[in-house]
Amino acid sequence: MSENKKMTIKTKGMHCVSCEHIIKETILDIDGVKNAKVNYVTEKVTVEFDPEKTNIKNIMKAIKKVGYEPEEIDQKESNGFFKKLF
Length: 86
Ligand SMILES: [Cu+2]
Description:
alpha+beta; Alpha-Beta Plaits; 26% helix; 30% strand; binds copper (II) ion
């Protein structure tokens, strides 16, 4: 069994809670994605996935497909280096 990867993607184009839902539902539909957290205020999409089943490129592509702009991976919030600070 492989370990899940956790990554945060800075994503533009979200304006409200329903945008959060669209992205969340979209990435949760991808095989291998275990969990997703979306926040339109901070423009962050945090996703936990099985790296043997999917990858971050796939996830970013799916976000793009529903009309948002995944920009870059937030290094310091990815891979679980920083757990939760509060
Ligand atoms: Cu919206």
